[in-house]
Amino acid sequence: MANLWRLWKILFIFTRYRLDSLVPVEQLPLSLRIALWLAPWRLNPVPGKLSRGARLRLALEALGPIFVKFGQILSTRPDLVPDDIVAELRRLQDDVPPFDSDTAIALIEDQLGQKIEQLFSEFSAKPLASASIAQVHAARLPQDSEHGDQEVVVKVVRPGIEHTIERDLQLLEFMARLLVKYSAEGRRLKPLEVVEDYRHTIYGELNLQIEASNATQLKRNFADSELLYMPEVYWEYCRNKVMVSERIYGIPVADVGQLQAQNTNMKLLAERGVEIFFTQVFRDSFFHADMHPGNIFVARHNPQQPQYIAIDCGIVGSLTEEDQHYLAMNLLAFFNQDYHQVAQLHIDSGWVPPSTKVHEFAAAIRSVCEPIFDKPLAEISFGQVLIQLFSTARRFNMEVQPQLVLLQKTLLNIEGLGRQLYPQLDLWSTAKPYLEGWMRDRFGPKAAYKELKRQLPGWIEKAPQIPGLVHGALSRLNHMDENQQALHNELLQLRETLHQQRNQKRHQTLGTLTLVSGLFSWWQAFTLGIPEVAGLAIAASGIIWLLLKA
Fold first, then answer.
1. So what's the pLDDT on residue 543?
2. What value, to the nearest 5°, has the Cα angle with vertex 509 and ends 506 and 515?
3. Residue 133 is labelled as binding a ligand
4. Full-prediction pTM beyond 0.70?
5. Residue 129 marked as a ligand binder
6. How far apart are CA 105 and CA 124, in angstroms?
7. Please, what is the angle between helix 405-421 and helix 65-74, to 10°?
8. What is the DSSP string of 425-442?
9. Tens-place pLDDT, residues 399-409
10. Which of 88, 313, 431, 511 is most buried (most C-beta within 10 Å)?
């Protein structure tokens, strides 16, 4: 009933803002076009004072944080979404209506156990920014605190947001189960695993201590880096629903006009964005997975050597060593236009069935990817390429890899940022040298030496135990041989028993058939009044046969 009520609310908001007017009706099947034309909500007028982008934005805000996140992703894709809609959806990044400041202050005091005047020498009741999950307030730490007169931002989770998110997640899970139950294509896409992965991700955003630990780890990974700066986290002021961190002053990455006004090196800025992404994914296996423009800034100092500033680390992703390896090999093969290798790697990694014909799969990938090479980013839409690749993969029963969903989302965000900053960015020449260097570092002599140094202390520590371990292993191997021999003998005995039972059943069947045929022959002669000695003899022989074999 809760799912049905939520579906009803979604339909109500859909019709209230007349989002059906955004649907490309001419591309739908005739039956759906007729259904839309006859739908009762068409009696409601389209809100004339609101643009289509504003109607979509208001609808997503009304539907809650999961839908707002969807709108944030769309706001970075001007190649897929018209410009007027993108302009409105960008307001979802940090311009969601805030909740009451008194509620925020009460929550901060409850979490930190002190009055707001004791915690901060200054506190702004008006939020600096408000997003789908939380909002932030400007503040200043007291002069006599451990960090001195430091400007900070205080992040507070929206009250009651857990209930809204859980309700929407239950609805998504309900729809995923329907897909799995009634659609073979739905089962291939693994919707239940994707929803469960998203559940884990979004609940990580609700716990600000997890976000604080993510930010601390990213800051450690990029310590003293010219590429990325992470604000300091003040752990003594962090709880599940409250987080306090250093306030930064930078230019929003989407504000291209202000970046150009200070003569920022836009080409280097775009290239450094790509380098940060690949460094996080391959060097650290720990990447910021919510890199929409509202969370990314550019430092104002030294615009010719621009440095990124990242905030809001509630969503991070990581890959296993196996996924890292296969992903890097796939990308290198892709950059080298070796589509046979791409197809073979997909089979080796288990992403497509082992029965897939490599040459056919390689030809299909080539037909999608070949046209995009030697083009600047302005002329390439990875969104369209991904859609075509998914359509191609569907023909070869490729299953969705839930562990790669966050990575794909981050790639789309990176593309959106690159398109805004420097459309002529040559993604291939930027990424390929980095990947080649990473592969050399990981599998070359230096990597082997580094791994040897890492393992050597443990080997030295266990060296005195090696003779005993070898003796124990040999003893176990000897016992294993004895056990295997005993098992072999038992199997031979079992096979002989089964053979005897089969022979016995064969003889029983033959004796029974002999008895039955003899009795039938005697009964047939008896009914005709003909003395039948042969039949009785046959029946008697059958009885004797059965008795002997028994």
1. 60
2. 140
3. yes
4. no
5. yes
6. 10
7. 50
8. --HHHHHHHHHHHHHHHH
9. 666 566 667 66
10. 313
pLDDT confidence bin for 542, thresholds 50/70/90: low
For residue 484, what is the DSSP state? H
> In the structure encoding, which two tokens stand for residue 499, read together?
């053979």
130 known ligand binder: yes
Nearest to 151 by CA among 217, 244, 251: 244
- Name the region of 130 (left: φ>0; alpha: ψ -120 to 50; beta: rest): beta
Backbone angles phi, psi at 142, to 5 degrees: -60, 155
Q: What are the tens digits of pLDDT across the range 33-90? A: 677 676 666 666 666 678 888 888 888 888 877 777 777 766 765 655 677 887 888 7
Contact 288, 409 (CB under 8 A): no
pLDDT tens digits, 336-369:
778 888 888 878 877 777 888 888 888 888 887 7
**In whole angstroms, how far apart are CA 296 and each of 47, 386, 538?**
34, 24, 98
Active-site residue list: 290
Query: Is residue 331 a known part of a binding site?
Result: no
Average pLDDT, the chain: 76
Query: According to the annotation, is 136 in a ligand binding site?
Result: yes
CB 93 within 8 A of CB 72: yes
Asked if residues 542 and 514 have their Cβ atoms less than 8 Å apart, the reply is: yes
pLDDT value at 180 more than 90: no
**Is residue 135 annotated as involved in ligand binding?**
yes
